[in-house]
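Field reference: sequence -> structure
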Amino acid sequence: MIQDIDTSIGEFDVGEDDYLFMKEFVANGVYDDYDRLVQLCDALALPTGFCFWKRGLWM
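Structure field:
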């Protein structure tokens, strides 16, 4: 969701050229409404299933 590759969790196992390409690619991406919807659905998903909005905020 954040257009900064340095916020990614994990270790990059690619070469320096590939890393720089992906860093620029992520930074220059343009999100449309569909992308935002997918990000919202991903944020509400848990390994056990869908997390209802109000329940997820207060649990």
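Note: The chain has three helices and two strands.
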